[in-house]
## 1
Amino acid sequence: MTQTKDQIALQLTEAGYIADEGLATALLLTSMLARPLLLEGEAGVGKTEVAKALARLENTDLIRLQCYEGLDRSDAIYEWNYQRQLLAIKAREGSGDSAETVEEAVFSEKYLLERPLLAAIRRDVPPVLLIDEIDRADEEFEAFLLEILSDFQVSIPELGTVQATSIPRVVLTSNGTRELSDALRRRCLYHFVDYPSPDRETRILLARVPGLDAALAVQIADLMGKLRKEDLVKVPGVAETIDWAAALLGLGAKNLKDNRELVFETLSCVLKTREDSARVSREVTDRLLGKVA
Amino acid sequence: MSGLRLESSADIGPVLRLRLAGFVHSLRDSGFKVGLAETRDASRLLCTQVIKRPDSLKAAFRSLFCGRLSDWQRFDEIFDAYWSGKGVKSGVKVSGTSTRKGMKTIREMIDASGRRQDTIVGDVERLPGEEDELSDDTPSGRREGASIAENLGQVDFRNLSDPDALKQAHDLAERLARAMRIRLTRRDRQKRSGKKLDLRRTIRRSIAHGGTPIDLVRKGPREKQLRLVILLDASGSMNNYTGVFTRFVHGLLDSFREAEAFLFHTRLVHVSSALSERDAGRALDRMGLMAQGVGGGTKIGAALADFNRWHAARVVHSRTCILILSDGYDTGAPEALGDEMARLRRRCRRIVWLNPLLGWQGYEPTAGGMAAALPYVDFFAPAHNLASLSALEPYLARL
């Protein structure tokens, strides 16, 4: 089946994700070139959503590996089920089995705990593997992730090498809290996810907040675009916009300009630090609202 | 798997291949990390029917060749200059070099400026009397790790007036901070490699189950990582040093996983987010915007009070080292500064005060504010040249 980027963009829209320019191409390339896709961007611009939408689009599973500091092989690839192994050894104590037999039995598939990376390469249907916030993991982890992403095999000393039965579609996300290695960057396709344009944000709102009036969505997206240009400590992401739109809808607002008080009071949906709340005062809100069409 | 598989044997013809090679070459010249595999994939892409229109070709190449945000931002320009400048279809002029005529790549510019800097180092070397003045004050052993250009390392920042030399000092300060990181993390790693399972306690617990270790006991969580909180004085009296210190702080902030930076003059500004910008120049621009009023008087006491009141609870924990870069000239009351320092001292692990004036001959920390603060400072060191900054590393490593 040959796809074009427009088809992919359309399918993404059906899967609930409004793609920006270039993302459809990047996704097309991931399947053509079998390379992982590295998504970078500020928190809350919908990087994780890309993987979720891709899984829906491909009608396959999403396997997610959330990275954190100190993540290691046993949490990411596989681990032996020590408790069961010990119990099994105990149970066989009187049976007179030789040490080799016991060892063989204990280090078998049955006692292996799959972690996300191993699970992802052993599926029959290629899943979407999301490696979230790779920049939080240590540099060592990045190194063996590279090994898996290039060979798609895992060697388990006691069991032998596990070959991939299917090559997953890999999506990595990073918030840029740490510089990633050049090797990893080179291996991956790259896409920078920016804050959406007002037009795209309007479409996202309409897709994500059922029952939202189109005119209100335009106003909200417009105001958010202007708000992001203010000097804020924590610039609100798309998730915040969706929350806010849902809040305004729930409170029965039809037009932002007629509900100035409501707008100011619900800004807590999008401003998440003390400094930001202080900065966007009533006057600033009024000024921003004044510029909204 | 949807999409289409590519045949590896596809050929794009010699003309296009040369053009592509030239493009990859100019990307590399601009600092892109592009390997052979990428070039091969690009040539495979060129022969598919999927990417016919130039704009989708650009998008595809952008995804393929970019590795970071800075690449991403520059890519369009390089792409347009290369492909649109000559036109793909009219590929008459094929040679890779001819297309690069007129387009000065960033790498070339850097090389050029690097050559210029070499000659400037020569100039610095000839600055009269600097080395003698300082070699007396600097105890041996302090200079460990200063494998950077020694001549520049010893020159007091205030004596650097040549903009190029200053720029080089800035770069060195930043590199120094990054080098510290590499060494510091290496030490950290070695310490951390312990067993995960606490076997002794596991077996002790197993007695309750007749010797079967049901409850596995693991080693507790690691020690909290050292956090660095930097308070940088940006008042008028620090004018000569602010630039280079900011670069140093920018480098440090990037190296420590947990670090926060504040800037103070008459008030306190939280600048971590501005300094998290990877590009140093842009980070400084952003910080400059955030901290308007730089170069005025200093109210260290008031700034510290502000810090203790609003930020300390959030950013300071028991494994925090506070690094104050200031000359200690305070226009507020010394008692207020002393009180705030005492309050701060109770919260954190160490307070390091770096004072550029300490590198001057005959300086005694007797200025009202400095004298009041000194009892609460664990480590008081000079910071007037690169050598003294690098001397800080062994101390930070011990924390």
## 2
Amino acid sequence: MRKPILTFLTLLLGMAHIVGQNPDLPSSIQRGSELYADFCVTCHLPNGEGVPFAFPPLAKSDYLIKNRAASIKGIKYGNEGEMIVNGITYNSAMAPMGLDDEEIADVMNFILNSWGNSSNDPVTIEEVRAITE
Amino acid sequence: MKNSIVYLYLFVVTLNYSCAQDAENKANTPSDIPFSEELLIDGLQIPWAMAFLPDNSMLITEKSGSLIHFKDGIKTTVANVPQVYARGQGGLMDIVLHPDYQNNGWIYMTYASEEGEEKGGHTALMRARLKDNSLYDNELLYKASPNTTKGQHFGSRIVFDNDGYLYFSIGERGARDENPQDITRDGGKIYRLKDDGSIPEDNPFIGNENAKTAIYSYGHRNPQGLVKHPETGAIWDHEHGPRGGDEINIIRKGANYGWPLITYGINYSGTPITDKTEMEGMEQPIHYWVPSIAPSGMAFVTSDKYKDWKGSLLVGSLSFQYLERLTLDGTKVTNREKLLENMGRVRDVRQGPDGLIYVAIEGKGIFKLIPKS
């Protein structure tokens, strides 16, 4: 009687390890989607498509994928100067939004897992905290 | 058969009457531009508003919270400015001088403030005097409540009318179903105060139970333009719509501008907000923009420095990044023109005491429009 339970528990633990590398990710993405609708959607638009030459896209954005730390830094401290995204040069400023580290992690996780983007490496609060101006 | 023709006719007639403006709603790029732009002040991030002091110097608010005094080509950061709640669209916003500034020295500002017990922030109005690049005699005149951590729709612009009353706007703080239609709640309103912050005896909602008696009009979304018409003295606003449906309104005492019960816009996601663009007892805009230009800053041209511009209205566009000039015939917009295209998000526009136009562009600074001779 004991053996099957033990096997079951071991199996369960193993599955949790494989499936849920970060069991918090879905809830982080959910919180991120609400923050996105509050702080980001007016410029980057509902499907992350942005506006060519004005507001860079987030959906399938080469910049976002290649420059994860710089993207976090941009949300945390604002962005200024030229930036090339999917072959188009952007030169408008983005102000820091006043989000805390957890909110930045959430919104990054939402962006990194929406509109065709996917990332199996969640952004953590610690990662955001470590990025300085 | 005959009936259906009559109905069709009636339908078409009704349709014509219900459209406040012509279907043609497009901004043109002019071939003859009566100015060249000169970057007067550089190195600014989000210059939100400008004020012109009698000694020809300027005050500029930065959204991040600093107040900059620009004098003789030098920028100085003014001290003793209130702490701002820099979140989302909130920060240090408008700045306006008292009409009798020469004698009393009062400077008025709106900003997002954490004052109060709840977490978050809401829009505040304060006044102060300036000496040796520091504010003093600071007085908080109004603080909206309750605070919220929402990032949207703080407003805010300030204007004085010909009788010395002060008007200022507060957006609905991302709570469109709670705030704009409820006169017992702050947000989604235009307020009217005396210059010392006290409430005029004839404000429209005095006597209404629990009403915020500073309210002058309601049903607004997020007004970031508020000016006095140079001839009629009436207060005009413009306000951000959702996706489509930015508006220009003439502000009337106690009037309801309809948000979110009527609108010419839809949700950002593309779903409808309401199928109504008008309702009895609610005001119609004199102009609406579809698609949205995201208007910020507003100025009537009263000088004759720029050919036939006198009497037209200038409005900044954040989303399309240009300065729009609207030609008016009374209260009807007859033409729209794009100026300063692709230079950045236009946050504010003013006519200076010299009759020249000054434009604040995000990420750039303050531009002066030099008339072509």
